[in-house]
């Protein structure tokens, strides 16, 4: 697919207490699980991290934040700047059950918009979503203005919001898992249990 996948791994993992990327599920690091799920589908994988040495083993292209300490919006900006593709999937490093097939569906909705944002059970998921490369400019503008939330960017660009109704090939339980992210130790324990049933 002529698109890049950008993995954001720059967070502090403060609620988890340890780096979420390196947490193991079925003897595989979370970051490896994500890479392996998207690798067959995307032409390029870009990891946004400010510790490239720690992730060298992944064998993917890496870039760092131009605006360190400014959160996911800065990570999105760095990834888009590093991408050679117009269309980009962005995924957070704490989503072990993401689906490349669902990502392809989101990309199919991106033709006439700047971003495709899932809204699942009424909640927006801007960190498993699709963004056009040109949004790097708008992201930098928001950061410079101190408007650091992802919603600040989305207010300025054309967005297609997609819901469960757009993913009819997936069951409700599958959708919940795909958009599950691990923030706290209990989330990690839940993820390990779910992985055993896959």
TrEMBL record:
Domain MobA-like NTP transferase positions: 5-149
Residue numbers binding GTP: 8-10, 20, 65, 94
Binding site for Mg(2+): 94
Localization per record: Cytoplasm
Molecular function terms from GO: nucleotidyltransferase activity
InterPro entries linked: MobA-like_NTP_Trfase (IPR025877), Molybde_CF_guanTrfase (IPR013482), Nucleotide-diphossugar_trans (IPR029044)
Necessary cofactors: Mg(2+)
Catalyzed reaction equations: Mo-molybdopterin + GTP + H(+) = Mo-molybdopterin guanine dinucleotide + diphosphate
Keywords per UniProt: Cytoplasm, GTP-binding, Magnesium, Metal-binding, Molybdenum cofactor biosynthesis, Nucleotide-binding, Nucleotidyltransferase, Transferase
EC number in record: 2.7.7.77
Gene3D superfamilies from the UniProt entry: Spore Coat Polysaccharide Biosynthesis Protein SpsA, Chain A
Pfam families to which the protein is assigned, alphabetical: NTP_transf_3
Chief location of this protein within or outside the cell: cytoplasm
Task of the protein: Transfers a GMP moiety from GTP to Mo-molybdopterin (Mo-MPT) cofactor (Moco or molybdenum cofactor) to form Mo-molybdopterin guanine dinucleotide (Mo-MGD) cofactor.
Entry remark concerning the domains of this protein: The N-terminal domain determines nucleotide recognition and specific binding, while the C-terminal domain determines the specific binding to the target protein.
Protein family (similarity comment): Belongs to the MobA family.
HAMAP family: MobA
Name by which UniProt lists this protein: Probable molybdenum cofactor guanylyltransferase
Source organism per UniProt: Neobacillus kokaensis
Lineage: Bacteria, Bacillati, Bacillota, Bacilli, Bacillales
Name of encoding gene: mobA
């Amino acid at each position: 697919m002529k698109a890049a996948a950008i993995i954001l791994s720059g967070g502090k993992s403060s609620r988890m207490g340890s780096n979420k990327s390196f947490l193991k599920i079925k003897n595989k690091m979370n970051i490896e699980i994500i890479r392996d799920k998207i690798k067959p589908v995307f032409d390029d994988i870009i990891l946004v991290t400010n510790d490239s040495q720690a992730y060298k083993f992944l064998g993917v292209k890496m870039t760092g934040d131009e605006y360190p300490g400014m959160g996911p919006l800065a990570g999105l900006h760095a990834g888009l700047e590093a991408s050679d593709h117009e269309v980009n999937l962005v995924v957070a490093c704490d989503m072990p059950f993401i689906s490349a097939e669902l990502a392809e569906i989101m990309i199919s909705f991106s033709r006439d918009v700047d971003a495709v944002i899932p809204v699942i059970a009424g909640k927006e998921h801007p960190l498993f979503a699709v963004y056009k490369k040109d949004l790097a400019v708008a992201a930098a503008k928001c950061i410079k203005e101190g408007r650091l939330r992802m919603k600040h960017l989305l207010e300025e660009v054309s967005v297609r919001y997609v819901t469960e109704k757009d993913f009819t090939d997936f069951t409700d339980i599958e959708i919940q898992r795909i958009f599950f992210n691990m923030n706290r130790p209990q989330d990690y324990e839940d993820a390990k249990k779910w992985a055993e049933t896959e």
